[in-house]
Amino acid sequence: MSATMYYEDDANPSLVAARKVAVLGFGSQGHAHALNLKDSGVEVAVGLRPGSRRESTATDAGLTVMTPAAAAEWADLIMTLVPDQYQQELYNEAIAPNLNEGDALFFAHGFNIHFGYVAPPATIDVAMVAPKGPGHLVRRQYESGSGVPALVAVHQDATGSAKDLALSYAHGIGATRAGVIETTFKAETETDLFGEQVILCGGIDEMIRAAFETLTEAGYEPEMAYFEVLHELKLIVDLLFEGGLSWMRYSVSDTAEYGDVTRGPRIVTEDTRATMRDILSEIQSGAFAREWMAEVAEGTPNLLASRRAVADHEVERVGRSLRNMMPFLVAKTPEDDQ
User: Which is the catalytic residue, given 31, 109, 155, 171?
Assistant: First the structure.
């Protein structure tokens, strides 16, 4: 069954234009949503904690900045764009006390609603508008007259017009220019976590390090290993992005394609597929969510230890040196965003 798609003509821009919108958070997605909505003629305020380093960036962009609680009190549509692990506390302290009947509470990821960490009252609309791209791309595409596709979902329709309002919001950030796919909070949350864990982050991360270690342990230069297992990955991802698996296979050499079809199944074995199914089950049951929130409650000791270990891995040390030799890219580190 194909997904339902919505475009410009399916949205009524006046619905979100009639609202006062609070965007809580001004990171990658927050800055894009707030600025795109503002440029679409929507009245927007940004909710940031006192002393936030992003406050001057938002005010310099011509946006009104309030505390999260003040923004939630002022608004009748609240978009929550802070990291998953902070949303429950933000909701309890700043949002819940300021909700009124008929308000709308929006999210760009379903984690906290789907797993029950946030439980809004039945008198408000709860919906999702989730662009399928990073915020800087959402902003850049909007400014160029285009847009980034998005997902839209309704968890709670108190007013009878939650989906129409979500589509109007999607129009305001430019998503309906590219196309909006209707889904559910459950489907978005579970597929998003699965993709992150088995391929986009977890799978790729482990494959890169394992392949790098295999080559260097066999005596190959770490610089050569870096180029082959990490640097050139962008070339393949770009091909996949442009035309899928067939275009990637067409674009690489016949030797590479033959190695793909004959050796790939030896890497992703039936045991690997069974592990993927186990990981999906952990996501669906809420076990991963409970594990992650328990980790957050303890101060994320395992996550912090992992960050230190990755930063000290040879592939990272070699990569930092090599990236500084490449004038065609701006080398980045986590410290650059602090």
Answer: 109
